[in-house]
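Box 3.1 A note on notation
Throughout this textbook, protein chains are presented in two layers. The first layer is the amino acid sequence; the second is a token string describing backbone geometry. Keep the layers aligned when reading.
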Amino acid sequence: QVQLVESGGGSVQAGGSLTLACVASGSRFSTYSMGWHRQAPGKQRELVASISTGGRANYADSAKGRFTISRDNAKNTVYLQMETLKPEDTAVYYCNAGLQGDRYYPIHWGQGTQVTVSS
């Protein structure tokens, strides 16, 4: 079982930046692909970005050019750097550990961290 703990959420004005971090327990972090999902009020949870064990990143169209996912296997940590934030980025952001096949399949989930972007 992998436990994931997110941090770095908060409130920011439109155009601002935030960096989320997610620390994973256990020694198998490097064997998982990692991802970030988000869920806004009244909307379905959506994949924002994922990164494979080899460091290949994929992004939702809404995140391309503004968000950067990265991982540090030595620290069991995955990051989501978010820039030029918009009010529509307001959501609870969830870290997950999963598998990369034809697409990213999340398996383990963190508790989430709130990101609020005001206009």
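The longest strand covers residues 91-100. The radius of gyration is 13 Å.
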